[in-house]
Amino acid sequence: MNRNRKWKYMGKAVLSGVLVTSLLVGSIGYAEAKPISQEETVYVELAEDGSVKEVTVSDLLKQEGKENVTKEEKADKDTKLPVDVKFTYLLDGKEIAGKDLVGKSGKLTIRVKYTNRSTQKKSINGKKETLYTPFIMATMMVLPSDKFTNVEAKDAKVMEEGDNQIVLGIGFPGMAESLDLEDGDIKDKLKSEFEITADVKEFEMDQAVTVASADILSELDLEDNEDLQDLEDGIDDLCDVSGKLVKGTKKVDEAVTKFGDKFGTFAKAITKMEKGTKVLNKGTNTLYKGVKQYTQGVSGLADGVTAYVQGSDKVSAGLSAFYTGIKDLPETYKKFSDGLTGYTSAVDKLADKDTVNALVDGAKGVAAQITAMNTNLETLEKSYDEYDKIIADLKAQADSCTDETQKQAILASVSELEKMAAEQEKTVTALKDATKSDGAWKKGADQVSGGVAQYTGGVQKLAESSSALTNADGEISKGLAGLVTSAKALKDGSGKLSQNSKKLLSASKKIKKVSKSLVKGGKGLADATGQLAKGSGQMNKAASAFTKGFTALEKGTGSLASGVKKFDEKGIQKIKDTYEDDFVSLKDRLQALGDLSKDYTSFSEKQQGVDSEVKFIIQSPAYKK
């Protein structure tokens, strides 16, 4: 924006003052009467070619309490006037002298141009500048309506008065140059020329009168103007506040940027938290399902433990019965072994009848012993079958058990029982083999008692059986002793197993009870993590929305800081610079013009101590037929 626009308001104010002053030319009053004052009027008559034809100076002296005195004198027409006015005529676009226009018709253009020749050197911002004395010039032309129609004026006013149209144009020659104005509204208002166009019929025109006065700025005083001082102080305050605003917005922008960086890290953490809560929720759901399955397994375990405890009680009872059945077997077998010893001793005495008779008796005794032993073996074998059934029950319990630790404990017990069963089977097999041999011997003994004729063959067979029986006797004795020891250990172990099984049953019941609470807690945990995942998702969306909004805020604060800085540099500082460079200069120029206006009070020499004012009235020639 040029300087004219910046100070448009002030310029209009000055212009308004000038216009008001122009209306008061010739009728200026004073609040305080002066003892002696002088009103000087310079009359200038122009020739048809625009040159000065005659100059008359009229001085009106006014003194309080005395009669006014008027003094007139002719001045040299070659005297240099401070101002001048020139009229240029164009008919149908071609320039023509005024005297040659008389009686002609067509499209008429009249151009009026003012010239200011009064200049002085003044100091403006420390520099000497040429300024024009601030003259205002006004021209009035009376155009008969029967001669002039469609009258238009550029930079002038057209008014109707009876049968005439009055044109009033005003100019300020040199004013725009003195104020150093660039093109703009104010300069356009301070022109030094105007133009009239009209349709003319048989051209004739009376004298045009132009009035010029330098008194328009004589009352101007800007040195002690409080409003201007307030303006200057206000601009200084504005600059200070603007500087603080620049610093403040910069700090805000830096703080917002720093917060944005921190919030970016926070938003990333929220995104990770959302992903984590989803994984957590998925895991808790899996955990919940696992807890339900575990609880079902615990229920099965508790049922299995109950069956296991019941089975272990049966095992313990069976083992006790088994041990009761075999604990006296070694003693019975010892009797058998003692009889066998007597039997083998008797074999050597089979040669005589007495020996044979004794042999028959011994054979009968051995047969009775073998029969008793077979009876015990049958009992033992039945106990063994019960033992196998117990092992089978334990295996079934192990297969149905869902707890791996319990399952392994049951299988270990089964393995130990199977080892003992194998040992028992081995012992029973050996006893059966022995009774088979004894059966052959018993048959032989019975045959001995039936006939001596078969004695020799029977003796031979008996000797063989006796020898085999003697060889097996030691192994059987050892096997029986080991069987009884193992059976006792198995019985004792089954007792402890039964006691521990009861503890296991009590613990499994507690686990089953606790597992129900665990299921309930697992469901609550799954629901809570679901809500947490949902909440973290909403929080992440909110953080994302906040991030977008904050990004816009960050850009906004950046733009604000940049804009405030730019506003300070291009606006406030520019205003300050303009004020310091242009306004101060304009103020100085106006004040200098005011001083020139005060100083230009007389065209001729004025008397000392007399207040004086001067105006020029310039008359152009009349053009008549």
What attributes characterize this protein structure?
625 residues, eight-stranded mixed sheet, 63% helix, rod-shaped, disordered N terminus
Task: Please tell me about this protein's structure.
The chain is α+β, with helices and mostly antiparallel strands and 625 residues long. Among the domains are: 38-214 and 605-619, no CATH class; 296-508. The protein has ten helices and 15 strands. The protein has helices at 3-6, 8-23, 98-101, 175-178, 185-189, 226-326, 329-347, 353-400, 404-450, 455-599, and strands at residues 36-46, 52-63, 69-75, 83-91, 94-96, 106-116, 119-124, 127-132, 136-144, 148-154, 156-161, 164-171, 193-200, 209-213, 611-619. The strands form three sheets. The chain has an eight-stranded mixed β-sheet, with no helix packed on it. Strands 5-4-6-13-10 form a five-stranded antiparallel β-sheet. Helix 7 (329-347) packs antiparallel against helix 10 (455-599) and helix 9 runs antiparallel to helix 10 (455-599). The chain is rod-shaped. It starts with a helix and ends in a 6-residue tail after the last strand. The model is unreliable at 1-34 (pLDDT under 50).
